[in-house]
């Protein structure tokens, strides 16, 4: 059995590890799972603009993946959680920002994706959270 390797994203991840008792990523064998990443900066502040918050969340996913030795190109599954902009759907603003970032970060490779509308996320003012799973490329070290 392969022992899990845990990773902490420099900056905000160190605070989460200390204050909230969790890691930002874990690698088990050739699979990397990351915890949900929001659109915060290292001081855990959120931008007012939803698209900017989504871009920052993707940036934070990228930072966390890098700590575990993978990139967006290695991602196979994306789960996103959204505080809806409308009462009956996640909303076009969320969906458009997500699709734009998926295309930009992953190129022609399309992951499986589940988008879920939620009433609230863990931090006050947080409107989007992204969790991904990646597969380490063949030949990459452990």
Write the layout of secondary structure elements.
Elements: E1 5-7, H1 12-20, E2 25-28, E3 31-34, E4 37-38, H2 50-67, E5 75-82, H3 92-106, E6 112-117, E7 128-135
Parallel strand pairs: 5-6
Antiparallel strand pairs: 1-2, 2-3, 3-7, 4-7, 5-7
Would you give an account of this structure?
- The protein is of the alpha+beta class.
- It has a single domain, classed as 60s Ribosomal Protein L30, Chain: A, CATH 3.30.1330.40.
- Helices cover 30% and strands 25% of the residues.
- Strands 1, 2, 3, 4, 5, 6 and 7 form a 7-stranded mixed beta sheet that branches.
- Helix 2 (50-67) packs parallel to helix 3 (92-106).
- The model has no long low-confidence stretch (mean pLDDT 92).
Total of helices: 3
User: How many strands?
Assistant: 7
Topology order in helix (H) and strand (E) letters: EHEEEHEHEE
**Spatial gap, N to C terminus:** 14 Å
Poorly predicted regions: none
Rg over alpha carbons: 15 Å
What proportion of the residues is helical, as a percent range?
Answer: 25-40%
Could you say which structural class the secondary elements and strand pairing correspond to?
Answer: alpha+beta
For the biggest sheet, the summary is: 7 strands, mixed
Return the CATH topology.
60s Ribosomal Protein L30, Chain: A
Shape: globular
Number of domains: 1
CATH evolutionary superfamily: RutC-like
């Amino acid at each position: 059995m392969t022992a899990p390797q845990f990773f902490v994203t420099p900056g905000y991840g160190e605070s989460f590890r200390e204050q909230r008792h969790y890691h930002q990523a874990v690698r088990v064998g050739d699979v990397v799972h990351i915890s949900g990443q929001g659109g915060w900066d290292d001081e855990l502040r959120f931008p007012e603009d939803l698209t900017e918050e989504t871009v920052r969340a993707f940036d934070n996913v990228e930072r966390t993946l890098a700590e575990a030795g993978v990139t967006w190109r290695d991602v196979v599954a994306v789960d996103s959680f959204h505080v809806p902009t409308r009462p009956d759907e996640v909303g076009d603003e969320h969906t458009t920002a997500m699709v734009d970032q998926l295309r930009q970060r992953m190129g022609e490779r399309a992951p499986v994706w589940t988008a879920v509308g939620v009433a609230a996320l863990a931090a006050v003012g947080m409107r989007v959270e992204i969790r991904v799973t990646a597969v380490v490329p063949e030949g990459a070290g452990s």
